Amino acid sequence: MVIPLGCCTFDRMNLPSKWIEAAVDQMSSLPGIGKKTALRLVLSLLNRSEDEVERFARSMTQMKEKVHECSTCHHFSDEEHCSICSSPKRQQNLICVVEDSRDVMAIEATQQYSGVFHVLGGIISPMDGLGPADLNIASLIQRVQSGEVNEIIFALSTTMEGETTAFFLYKKLSAFDVTLSAIARGVAIGDEIQYADELTLARSIAQRTPYENAIKRS
After folding, report:
1. For the chain: N or C, fewer Cβ within 10 A?
2. Confidence of residue 216 (pLDDT cuts 50, 70, 90)
């Protein structure tokens, strides 16, 4: 009896090569890539020319070697300072605090924000073993201590972990002469910044409110 491919599980597939199996294992280790999708991608690479596969592999290796964190904001960068931090057109006294670089790219896509960023590298999540010491909080405090920052915008996910992180930062930064804001609730409770549509995200930043108001709403 012939079983349709869509009905098969990966475990029941008889892969013809240990090298294909190893490649599938590596491809499926990426987030959102299941075994079937990994197999389809691997077979696509296998059908390409050797030069194409070498270019593909080389681009991955070079990315890992060349891309590092901006020394100021921790966003991905090819240089010591990212293009946002080094741009003379950006408001250096306005910092938007986000969880990771995907949030920076989501906000940049709106083309409505003219300040700079600070990437925490995660949010406080005891379940995942992440505490304040694991995040880029010390460097944020150093930036505020410079006296050149007028406003901090908390643009973190509206999950319990995101709210906990924002409140922790509020307690740490409230002693400084700096305005602390939170994005408006255009981003629904429980949502992550990177998944918000551009219009909603732009409005949420433009209509930001004092963080004290966000605490009262909670």
Report:
1. N
2. low
pLDDT for the residue numbered 2 = 37
CA 201 to CA 177: how far, in whole Å? 27
DSSP 6: G
> If you average pLDDT over residues 119-127, what whole number do you get?
95
Nearest residue to 96 (alpha-carbon basis) of 65, 105, 88? 105
Q: Which amino acid is at 77?
A: S
**Distance separating alpha carbons of residues 168 and 72, to the nearest angstrom:** 21
Nearest C-alpha neighbor of 137 from the set 168, 104, 108? 168
Reading the block at residue 195, the tokens are 């998944």
Residue 187 confidence (pLDDT) above 80: no
Structural domains of the chain in order of their starting residue, each with its CATH number: 14-66 (1.10.8.420), 87-217 (3.40.1360.10)
What's residue 193's pLDDT?
61
DSSP labels for 178-217?
-EEEE--TTSPTT--GGGS-HHHHHHHHHT-EEHHHHHHH
